[in-house]
From TrEMBL:
PROSITE patterns: HIS_KIN (PS50109). Keywords: ATP-binding, Kinase, Nucleotide-binding, Phosphoprotein, Transferase. It comes from Sinomonas halotolerans. The keyword Transmembrane helix does not apply. Residues 293-489 form the Histidine kinase domain. It catalyses: ATP + protein L-histidine = ADP + protein N-phospho-L-histidine. Its EC number is 2.7.13.3. This is histidine kinase.
Length: 490
């Protein structure tokens, strides 16, 4: 199904809500196509071509009569008189049995969709008449339901803006099960799939002639779990969705009230067994909660390890050993902060700016030995893949710590963190991270010694992040470390 929306936007005569109503129609007319066993086409007036096809939908209950897509094309000459007549009369117009294609005899109906007394568009229904067999009761009932909905369209009563537009999985379709009610909520007809769906809820032999509300009430065991919309749905009074659950079986229900100019004369209730869908959703919810709990517990354990390292460092008499334990404590704390962020959501990406905003200043403060160190950030990291968050956070933590301890060397100064997202020459997304300080600068090449922290940084950047790293002298004094990571490899 496709929709050609430019003519709607260009048409100046539409009133408030008219375009939205047509979009609502196209979003829900698969229901009518399935009930009518027919292809539906939506025609809109065009100043040059007469009418243009805005949308086309094929039925899922039978074969299509149009194998090619004609959305955006002008109306055929043999179809235009019928559409013109429906547009002017604001009533359903039916053609005689006519062979519009070489191989298919079709019955065509033109249905004007009227809102606030004005015709907005015309829907044509194309039903294949090549089958000569007698229609079953199911087919006759379905076609009557389709006619009732299309008739409501000529009165501006369908589609209804009160209908839910949510995308929750398990929305029932015609083939899943259909029940037709009278004005009192008594079942006039139930399709075989509809009867089977309710039979799975309990010992229901038949539905016809019974009040659907009473049947549903008799099936509910735990009334504390009843959806508050259920009574209005099973009586067909409101165009809503609801669910009923019994004996481990869940049915998704959708009601479509049937109305004429004066009153509601019945309703359609679509039903679908969504037990397996809900079971899988519950499994996912359980797994999501478990993953969050794991991240939370890992964070707690890492914080405990960091606290133990801090306590042990205070007992150390060797200054070198004390510094080593403090560095290990900072690294563990950085990883714990990442797990705390991961425990708050399950998205595949993480807002790294929120995470690093806390860690950047904390890393600088912990590494100071009495001097005043200012921190400044520029640019945005944005959303990053969760698998690169931990190594990148560790790298930044090590570089900031190194800048404070060695670059500034017990003197006051500033550490900058700059992030930029861009594309490289090949068009691939790239993240560039720069950590700078205005300290003593890089030592001479012959006196350089790569400690454990810088070895960790180099390993994480090249192995975990698949990026590159380079150290340079900062213009104006100090050191600049530049990291380049390609995000399309994540």
């Amino acid at each position: 199904m496709a929709i050609f929306t430019d003519p709607i936007r260009e048409h100046a005569d539409l009133g408030p809500g008219d375009a939205e109503w047509l979009h609502l129609l196209v979003g829900d007319w698969q229901l009518v196509a399935d009930l009518a066993f027919a292809d539906l086409a939506l025609w809109f007036p065009h100043p040059e071509t007469g009418y243009i096809a805005l949308a086309h939908v094929r039925p899922s209950t039978t074969h299509t009569v149009f194998h090619s897509d004609f959305v955006g094309e002008k109306i055929r000459g043999d179809l235009r008189p019928l559409v013109d007549k429906a547009w002017a009369s604001q009533a359903i117009e039916r053609s005689h049995e006519t062979s519009f294609n070489a191989d298919v005899a079709m019955r065509v109906e033109a249905v004007p969709f009227v809102r606030n007394g004005r015709t907005l568009a015309v829907v044509t229904s194309h039903m294949d008449l090549s089958s000569s067999r007698m229609p079953s009761r199911l087919e006759l009932t379905y076609r009557q339901c389709a006619y009732d909905l299309l008739r409501m369209g000529t009165l501006g009563l369908w589609p209804d803006f009160a209908s839910p537009t949510g995308s929750r999985r398990g929305a029932p379709r015609v083939g899943d099960g259909l029940i037709r009610l009278d004005a009192d909520g008594v079942v006039q007809y139930a399709s075989p799939n509809g009867v089977s769906a309710f039979r799975r809820l309990g010992g229901i032999e038949s539905l016809e002639g019974r009040s659907l509300a009473e049947v549903a009430a008799g099936l509910i065991k735990d009334r504390r779990m009843v959806d508050e919309t259920l009574p209005l749905v099973v009586t067909g009074r409101m165009p809503w969705r609801s669910e009923i659950e019994s004996r481990g079986v869940s049915l998704s229900l959708r009601a479509i009230p049937l109305r004429d100019e004066h009153e509601r004369f019945g309703a359609l209730v679509l039903c679908r067994d969504v037990s397996e869908l809900r079971r899988r959703e519950m499994e996912l919810v359980t797994k999501d909660a478990t993953i969050r709990e794991i991240h939370h517990r890992v964070k707690n354990n890492l914080q405990t390890v960091a606290a133990l390292l801090r306590m042990q460092s205070r007992r150390m008499k060797s200054e070198e050993g004390k510094q080593g334990l403090e560095q290990a404590m900072r690294r563990v704390a950085a990883i714990a902060l990442v797990h705390e962020t991961l425990s708050q959501g399950l998205a595949q990406t993480v807002d790294f700016d929120e995470l690093i905003g806390r860690q950047f200043r904390l890393s600088a403060e912990v590494a100071t030995e009495g001097q005043h160190v200012a921190t400044e950030r520029r640019g945005e990291f944005g959303e990053l893949p969760s698998d690169c968050v931990t190594p990148l956070a560790l790298v930044i933590n090590e570089l900031v710590t190194n800048a404070v301890e060695h670059g500034l060397a017990r003197r006051s100064g500033t550490v900058w963190l700059v992030a930029e997202r861009r594309t490289d020459a090949a068009g691939a997304p790239v993240l560039e991270v720069v950590v700078e300080d205005d300290g003593v600068g890089l030592p001479e090449a012959k006196s350089r010694h790569e400690g454990l922290g810088l070895q960790i940084v180099r390993t994480l950047v090249t192995s975990e992040l698949g990026g590159t790293i380079e150290w340079n002298a900062r213009e104006g004094g100090g050191t600049s470390v530049r990291i380049l990571v390609r995000l399309d490899h994540r």
